[in-house]
Every structure is written in C-alpha cells, then in structure tokens.
Amino acid sequence: MSEETQIQHSTTETPGSSQAVPAPPALEVKGISKAYTERRRVTSVLNNVSLKVEQQEFVSIVGPSGCGKSTLFHIIGGLEQPDAGTISMNGSLVTGQRGEISYMPQQPALFPWRTIEDNVLIAGEIKGVPQDQAREEARHWLAKVGLSGFERAYPHMLSGGMQQRAAFLRALLAPQELMLLDEPFSALDALTRSEMQRWLLELWEENRRSVLFITHNIEEALLLSNRIYVFSGRPGSVLHTVDIPFPRPRREEITDSPEFLLLKRQLSQWMREEQEKSATTKG
Ligand SMILES: Nc1ncnc2c1ncn2[C@@H]1O[C@H](COP(=O)(O)OP(=O)(O)OP(=O)(O)O)[C@@H](O)[C@H]1O
Ligand SMILES: [Mg+2]
C-alpha cells in the first residue's frame, strides 16, 4: 500500500508575457535525514524526506507521534542542521539559515515579560509598521480570535488554548511569506478548534500564503489542505502523498460528502497502521 498519488505542479503567468513560467516552489525539502546521538546511542529521526510547498499552497503533514515532524520544522527554520539533504525557498538554497519563515512552534513560545498584545505586536515591530497602526491591527486580530479584554494580560494569566491562539496570531501577522504551523490548534476544545479552522480557511482563501501545517487531526488536514504528506513512524519518511481534490472556497459542509469520508477512512487506516508499527517496535 505504498502507491503515491501524482503531485500536480502549478504554473503562474508572468505579467507582460504570454508564456506560463513555472514559479519555483515556496519550499522544497530534498532528501533530509537527521539522527541524534545521546550517550553513544544513535536515534535516526528523519530518513530521506522530500516534499514541496508550491506558491500559495496549503500543505499538511500527518504522522505518528515522535516521527520527526517538529524536527523537520526545526531544520526548515534553520534551528537544526540536517545530516543530509537541502532546503530551498523560492528557488534559493537556504539550508541552515534562520529568519526565512514565520513559525509557530508546538509549544506556544510567548515572551513571559510581554503582554499578549505586545507579544502579537512583535510581528509588526519586525515589519517596521508604525506603532499606532500595529497596535490597532493587533487589537483587531485579538478580538477575532476571542482574546479581547486580554490585551494587557501576561501569558501566564491565560489558559493553554488562549496562549496557543495568541501564538498563532503572532505567526499569522509575521511578514514572511512561508508559514510553518506545528499543531496550532491542539490545545483547543472541539468547538473553538472548529471555529479557528473555519477562520483560518476563510482567511487563507482570501489572502493566500504558502503554508506547511502539522496536525494529528485528519479531518482538519483534509478540510484545509491542497496536499497531505503521510509520514511513517520513526525514522520519519514520506509514505503517501495525497492531493486533495475539493474545490475552493471550501466550507465545512464538504466533511459530510462521500468523497471526504472515503479519504478520511483511507488516511485514518494508514495512520493506524503506522501507529501500530511504532508501538510494536517500541514494545
Ligand atoms: N534535540 C534533540 N535531541 C535528541 N533527540 C531529539 C531532539 N529533538 C527531538 N529528538 C527526538 O527525535 C524524535 C522526533 O521528535 P519530534 O519532536 O520531531 O517528533 P514529532 O513527530 O514532532 O512528534 P509529536 O507528534 O509527538 O509532536 C523523538 O524521538 C525525540 O525524542
Ligand atoms: Mg511535534
């Protein structure tokens, strides 16, 4: 069961020319491998991972816990060096370079000494937006994610889910075109999660950015993505590449369609198989 669905490559029109010129992908991960050595024990975490995010595409990664998804994000963001392979963005090699992406880590890393509003404002400060304008923008977005009234609170005064929403906003307002989101909604209750998904979907469809998204939630991945990469258990490698055919704009109603349910069943089965394999190797 390792048949891979074909990836469709996008092309864009260059202004003033009638020829379609393929734009380089927003992100290209090629042959990434990584192992950690601790007390002389070598753990292979990623094995020859290759994937792409075309310009303005929404791409998801699903895979068992511990298969190296967050490690891959650290490598893309230049926080870790790979043992093998390269990272390119917009056609340029950027392996090991920082500052190229907007990144929301799995643990919302808000600055504890800054208020929520000031945490979100960091994106504006980096962009060089005038203070007043940035503050107004931050308030507008905080209200959208249900954090009005908490602008002046400090991170420790917020619940885990509220911190996650603030960290998500900070990534969203950052100036980099490519956004990496590591399980941005994992700490939210089902209702808030579904609200945030709907909101992200609408926002992304209005104002497309290139997104690489990690989630354990298959329904979420199917609803949001153009393509899903299914990872194997550790060492993580790409097992399946699935193009998601639903037209845009997408609304939650598609989750009831037979096509959606079929894909959901297939992906869930792959995930279960990998989880079982991981459990037997560990046990
Ligand atoms: N800095 C590090 N030093 C040693 N081992 C590490 C380090 N970072 C990650 N690992 C190991 O690499 C493996 C993959 O971790 P990673 O956080 O990438 O998994 P993940 O797929 O994001 O899992 P989850 O879905 O639970 O978030 C784990 O076994 C982890 O212990
Ligand atoms: Mg992780």
Automatic annotation (TrEMBL):
Question: Quick one: where's region Disordered?
Answer: 1-25
Which GO molecular-function terms appear in the entry?
Answer: ATP binding; ATP hydrolysis activity
Q: Which domain of life is it from?
A: Bacteria
**InterPro entries found in the cross-reference section:** AAA+_ATPase, ABC_transporter-like_ATP-bd, ABC_transporter-like_CS, ABC_transporter_ATP-bind, P-loop_NTPase
**ABC transporter domain sequence ranges:** 27-258
- What SMART domains does the database record attribute to this sequence? AAA (SM00382)
Name the CDD domains for this protein: ABC_NrtD_SsuB_transporters
Under Pfam families, the record lists: ABC_tran
Q: Where is the composition biased (Polar residues)?
A: 1-20
Q: Keyword Acyltransferase on this protein?
A: no
Q: Which UniProt keywords apply?
A: ATP-binding, Nucleotide-binding, Transport
**Which protein are we looking at?**
ATP-binding cassette domain-containing protein
- The organism encoding this protein is Paenibacillus monticola
